[in-house]
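Exercise: predict the fold of this chain.
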Amino acid sequence: MLNVAMQSPEGCPALVLNADYRPLSYYPLSLWGWQETVKAVFLERVNIVSEYEREVHSPSVAMKLPSVVSLKCYVKPALYPAFTRFNVFLRDRFQCQYCGNKDDLTFDHLIPRSRGGMTRWDNVTTACAPCNLAKGGKMPKIAGMFPRQNPYRPTVYELHRNGRLFPPNYLHESWLDYLYWDTELEP
């Protein structure tokens, strides 16, 4: 087990790239903590692409912490993402599909569950709490509320594209050559 020398390495996550040097995920960004990264290096599962200046030490080994690693074996990305609340919000770019609000988000069943509506991609949309409350258990036509975008099952690629609209607050300079954030479009 490696011991920490001087400063804590907790602030040194590694960007994880697939074997083709693309991030495994943009949102959330594919990051590993320093311990998981060091373990993967010693198990020879990753290549070190870039390093921090910070080092960790054991009695016999000193190593700079990796800041970017690539998997040695390519992981084929799934075509379709899992249905989760977060992924619904990401598909809908974190805004209410009725009014455009970006606060107090929930999800709404277009066909209410009380009327047989299922919890699945093509029946669930992002809604702010006031719009969700206003629509209640009514059908869209009765409520007079129609989503700006009809709900659909997105591809992983579409979620990655949307994720690039929301860059994280912190990006280490060694990561920038591997990340492509769309800074001209507003989320």
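Check your answer against the key: Residues 14 and 67 are 4 Å apart (CA to CA).
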